[in-house]
Amino acid sequence: MQKTGRIVKGIAGFYYVQTSGREVYECKAKGSFRNDKLKPLVGDYVSLAVVDEEKKKGNIEKIENRKNELIRPAVANIDQALVIFASIDPQPNFHLLDTFLARMELLGIPSLICFNKSDLDEDQEIYKEIEEIYRASGYPIVYTSAKEQQGVEQLKAYLKHKCTTVAGPSGVGKSSLINLLQSNVRMETNDISQKTARGRHTTRHSELIALDEDSFIMDTPGFTSLRMDEYEKEDISKGFREIFEQEGNCRFVGCSHIHEPDCGVKEALCQGKISKKRYDSYVMMYEECKEKRRY
């Protein structure tokens, strides 16, 4: 018997496919996928052959064409990315956030930024810094507190009618927020390690979770580092909206926005139209890609 559905979870070579009737089948992938160097991803639409209806087991025989796919995190067919950082405890790593945003921008995937634990930022210092850095980037920013259940409804509104991949470093309260956004799946939560001031990874696999009939989130394992050296250095400016917008004001075509004179980007930086932290992130990524070409 043939059925179609969507992969909602993948663990240790097993893929859990939910069909239109809300039934979930435990499946293995056809060996030919390996020969074609094609690996099923959470979010894939697939065709499966049922091998045991009673035990809900089957084999994935076909993966439908993907709208898009990500490698880190490994998911497919998403409408937007939600990246969650903590406002404090741990302090946000803005370069890591910029790297994630740049990767999504280069893939043409809209991003939404969420800063959790906003209740801990009593003097609003982190809030002011965030606004100063990202006000020119145009990304929607939501401030939440999973502990106080603040900002959750505003966040839900951004997720409506979309399939959203959710990612972020460990220890930022990602699982706690996901538990507040839906009631079907309870995610394991852990406190920050006091010894290392870092979170313990509570999400160990990617999973597609329904918020309502046509709204889904893909919970993915936390990330601690991302590299951009798979891109050419000339591509990096396209990952920064506010920098890319100023390229037409540069004197030289192909300006790196680092050493050249009469650079529209550096002029915008001096005028406060581009955040110094965002610009520094751009330069770090540019140099990273430049080094790759040398070696």
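The record above closes out task 2.4. Task 2.5 opens with a second protein, given below.
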Amino acid sequence: MLEFPAQVKQALEIAGGFNGKLSRSFDNVLICGLGGSGIGGTILSQLIAEKCPKPISATKDYTIPAFVDENTLVIACSYSGNTEETLEALEAAISAGAQIACITSGGKLLKMAGENNWPVITIPSGYPPRSAFGYSIVQLFRLSEAFGLIDGGWKAEMKSAIEKIESDIDAIRLKAKELAQKLYGTMPIIYSSNWLEGVGTRWRQQINENAKMLCWHHYYPEMNHNELVGWRTENKDLAVLILKSNFDHKRVAKRMELSEVVYRKYTPNLNIIQAKGSTKIEQALYLIHLGDWMSVELADLIGADSTEVDVIDWLKGELAKF
């Protein structure tokens, strides 16, 4: 977490050196990636949805949608370069004739990119994938700019976001510690508007991996059409976290306000987190950084090793036998 601002600054320098080209135009985009490598694709697609002229989808599976063809740009994002789901999806994309671009630190993906002369951005290795988010999200923005999906204004917004995080870091860490204390011994539930759903996913993932806790997330307005009905029983072990933004649709903001009335009937643990910043990029990075710190503070309270992911390593080992 301490390295995040510096990581984004370095990532911007790496992005500045990219001059890869595509051989032809495309009609749609598919971003392939999982876990810490994949969450950036979801967040990117939601942050640029109102500006991007072409549809962007994110997949987190071995397979690809049927729409993928020679008119599709597939961005493979695997920090290690060896994520088996991403590599298998990539093979399917190749068979479908899609154009390929990559973001990785090495592994099979980097080798394939070199052999096939695909546009690739190589990021520093040696981190757990979830700790390299600053590197990967910046490169996703860079590829989006390079291939005509967005203009270059994102760079100034990214720099401004990091400057604000650096100037507000003491308050962020204090807020993170306070939230962790409130979440200790509970089952967290994260709610946000649709455009912040990827950020809410990041909060869940960080709580899962760093604090070794189960939790879940959902988003408005969709949850008002299903999950809200599930609030029927008092449970003081549940803790609600609502990520709010002044970019939320006005009707979504009202839905959040009214839904709070329901939550308070069944749990006293309700926490409102207001995003800070003047742009969507600034607010998303603020919330992500706050959530990252909170998950580590929570791990410390629990006595968990925030870097340990033994069960994932075990699973990979068992899968390698087949």
